[in-house]
Amino acid sequence: MKGSKFWLGMTAVVCALALGGCATQVKRMGVEEVKDLSGNWNDTDSRLVSEEMIRDSLSGGWLSRHEQQSNKAPAVIVGSIRNLSHEHINTRTFVADLERAFVNSGRVDVVASKTEREDIRDERADMDLNSAEDTRKEMGKEVGADYMLIGTINSIIDASSGEQIRFYQVDLTLVSMSDNRKVWTGQKKLKKDIKEASFR
Amino acid sequence: MNTNIDPATALQGFATRLRAFSFLLLVLPVAVLSGCATYSASFSRVEDDAAHRNLDSAIKSLDDLNLKGPDELLHHLNKGTLLSLQGNYAESNRHFEEAKREMEHLRAISVTEQAASLMVNDTLKAYEGTPAEQLFVYSYEALNYLQMGNLDDAAVEARQFDVKQGLIAADNKDADYLSGAFVRYLNSMVFEAQGERDDARIEMQKAMQGYKKQDSPFPIPQGLRDDLARIKAGRPAPSEVVMIFHNGLGASVDENNIRVANPSYNPNESKDLMMLSLAVPKFVRRSLPVDHVVLSAGASSATSEVVEDVNDIAEKSFNDRLPAIIARGVARMVAKNVAAKAAKDKVGDNPLFNFVADIATNVSERADTRSWSLLPGNIQMARLPLAPGRYDLTATYYDPYGNVVGTHLFKGVEVRGGRKSFVMDYYFNPPAAPKAPN
């Protein structure tokens, strides 16, 4: 009797181990929780860049100067953020964070991008034919941007067998559309020491 | 008859037999699983389909091989190649990215794989690609991005290549053939197209040094010399079509059985073998079907030049690795024979066991014939300067005797002012029927 209980217990343990090994495991994480797997650019890097850029851009003198001079909120359009790094980096994540911070601050207007505008213009043209007159939106009333946000991501890698130092520098610049002046530049630097596993 | 058997003696006898059979338990399943076909022989179907431009069929044949576990890298390298030849560039790059991840992962040593390689054969080790193959991945990805018109991502590949080539060169100090000259030549075009003229000039200079160092059996490409002279003079790049041509299937690896003296041979020991039979890989260079390509658009034409002899690099790389492969093979056969002898001694005079043990020892001995054999034999480049516009281009392929062996039409290629448009094609020779190991 004692023996049969032992074998029953062992069978249960083996089954649990076998089934546990087969199932995909998903664990929810906080979006601010840091987990570096490969050492490549990841969500934490993107978040650190957006936090720095939002803080710096909204507290910069360019915004108050524009408000004083024109008495209205500046309109910003996002241009190209060139990836000059060693990785295929999705720049849309921190740019979208920055756009959201601008809009939600109530102090900066953000103009739709080139591809977004094309969709909206198609819709407006469609409205011209199909919408009721009192809800129809006219062509030619778009807001022109005062500034364009452009930028680059650069990286430097120093590597030897088994270890890499990766340095990233993200530079964003607001350029005045009327006279090409750079009215704000933001910068974020990140550095990582990545040691490869010797055994697997 | 009444026989009394001491349980302790019986148990000891059973344990001895179990230990003897453990040798068979380790080696026999591998011998059975190894089967008769080597990797390169089983891959010839994929090569044959690709050579006949049945790329859908080639991809299916590749999928049917079910390359995973230690062969997973080969799946991604070959699938990426076939998808690129098919024009499915984004999906091709997904496989090349997987291949790069796998190669990074495999840089770490697996103790179990090393032990299996020393006890059974080298095919049990995960295939991590030769250094030369690891460098070519970057050119494939960059070319895919260029054909998608995505310069920024092609430049990311160029920068990654620079880091990787530096690491590989540091790890293989005497291997001048790993200069990555062709990839640097290609990368210089990417950087210049991106407006990074300093980076482009540096890549051109490194490509020139690489070609000189790697002692290739072809002259340094004139196109590269002209580019370097032009960029040093501060002149802008002309608008042109750059055709990359993959010529012939790259080298294959066959299995070859050789006999070497048993270093642990004891003449006083009757069961010791004086000679050991060893399965080692044999480099097989395949013929190049095309001598040169003429790329034409109306009255304008350009002749290709060789920009990389992949066969030559593969052969030098193979010859560098062969001594270590043979040394490991000898150590393995000595270990197998010692284990087989010990097992035979424990079992006693059992002819059937001895026969099975000998079979298991020899059949489990297989050469590692794995390689990224869809790499071309050589790579050629034709550069056709054209005024901005849209063109139908014809590529004509000539054999060494001046006969036309094929043509390819690129329809509606757009050429923009001061820009390069990249096109790519291939011509593979159907592989010869696989030979039985000799």
Describe this structure in words.
- Chain A is an alpha/beta fold.
- In chain A, 40% of the residues lie in helices and 28% in strands.
- In chain A, helix 2 (43-59) runs parallel beside helix 4 (92-105).
- The longest helix of chain A is centred in the first third of the chain and has 21 residues, at 2-22.
- The model of chain A has no long low-confidence stretch (mean pLDDT 90).
- By secondary structure, chain B is α+β, with helices and mostly antiparallel strands.
- Chain B contains 14 helices and 10 strands.
- In chain B, helix 3 (44-51) runs antiparallel to helix 4, helix 9 (151-171) runs antiparallel to helix 10 and helix 11 (197-213) packs antiparallel against helix 12.
- The A-B interface holds A 38, 82-88, 155, 157, 159-161, 196-200 and B 101, 104-111, 152-153, 155-156, 159-160, 163, 166-167, 170-171.
Name the CATH architecture of chain B. Answer: Alpha Horseshoe
Strand content of chain B: 15-25%
Q: Got a strand count of chain A?
A: 5
Can you identify the CATH superfamily of chain B?
Answer: Tetratricopeptide repeat domain
Cα shape of chain A: extended
Overall structural class of chain A, as computed from helix and strand content, comes to alpha/beta
Mean pLDDT of chain B: 89
How many structural units, i.e. domains of chain A?
A: 1
Largest sheet, spatial ordering of strands of chain B: 6-7-1-10
Topology:
The complex is a heterodimer of chains A (200) and B (438).
Chain A: H1 2-22, H2 43-59, H3 61-70, E1 75-84, H4 92-105, E2 109-111, H5 114-130, E3 147-160, E4 163-176, E5 182-195
Parallel strand pairs in A: 1-2, 1-3
Antiparallel strand pairs in A: 3-4, 4-5
Helix pairs in contact in A: 2-4
Chain B: H1 7-34, H2 39-42, H3 44-51, H4 55-65, H5 72-86, H6 89-105, H7 111-119, H8 131-147, H9 151-171, H10 181-193, H11 197-213, H12 222-232, E1 240-249, E2 252-261, E3 275-284, E4 292-297, E5 300-303, E6 305-308, H13 310-347, H14 351-363, E7 376-385, E8 389-398, E9 404-415, E10 420-427
Parallel strand pairs in B: 1-10
Antiparallel strand pairs in B: 1-7, 2-3, 4-5, 4-8, 6-7, 8-9
